[in-house]
From TrEMBL, chains A, B:
Pfam families hit by this protein: HxlR
Species for this entry: Alkalibacillus silvisoli
Source organism superkingdom: Bacteria
Regions crossing the membrane: none
Stated name of the protein: Helix-turn-helix domain-containing protein
InterPro entries according to UniProt: HTH_HxlR, WH-like_DNA-bd_sf, WH_DNA-bd_sf
DNA sequence: CGGTATCCTAGTGGATACTG
DNA sequence: CAGTATCCACTAGGATACCG
């Protein structure tokens, strides 16, 4: 029984890594479009500040989800990519993406039904 | 291209519903063990306060994930269960649970390797 | 180019006490 | 039993400015 309790909590591990306003979308970009430079990623995330992008990437790096490669040159060049371990998150991300898409459709339908009445 | 951008963001819908310190574990209890009364659920969530349990349940109810049934009697009786729509979250929850379990194992192995050196 | 540093605000979550 | 009502600490996230 207690074992069950402990088991249930494991969900939070995945959640804690994925939570963050920009983390899921960062991961999807890296998964689907491969390695990015810092500013390249920034351009794909309209509205994000440098500070936030740095912070989210650092946290993902600390969890071994994202790999950071620094090229020692001037001007600086830093590349980010999904780690092998990070790729194991894909099923979760895809499941969330699919659910989210249906969720949006559902909301629209509910809106429409409201309008028709 | 822009369509792609919009698509990517759908992940956040799922995330926003699942995020909350107690939500995933509440949902798993309701999914696996069925309908619960308020205090029954509270007993299964060591450490949660009444306020937090109420808040999380209300938020899940607002999103149509959880159903709340009030029995008009004294003393009060309120039952919570997963809605039909809430059940569609199961694949995500299971994917997160599985990942989290492997994640814990992986961490332990890394710890062991550290100790052995 | 790829960051830090500083300051700020809103919201999340907890402790505690009270209630129909 | 199943909640509210307060008050409070902490953090996430944003705006802005500066740096090697």
């Amino acid at each position: 029984m207690e074992e069950r309790q402990v088991e249930l909590c494991r969900v939070e591990d995945a959640l804690s890594i994925l939570v963050g306003k920009w983390k899921p979308i960062i991961l999807l970009h890296l998964l689907h479009e491969g390695t990015h430079r810092f500013n390249e990623l920034k351009r794909k995330l309209p509205g994000i500040t440098q500070k936030m992008l740095t912070k989210q990437l650092r946290e993902l790096e600390a969890e071994d989800i994202v790999e950071r490669t620094v090229f020692p040159q001037v001007p600086p060049k830093v590349e980010y990519s999904i780690s092998e371990y990070g790729q194991t998150l894909e099923p979760i991300l895809e499941a969330m993406h699919e659910w989210g898409t249906n969720h949006t459709l559902r909301k629209r339908q509910i809106e429409q039904n409201k309008d028709e009445q």
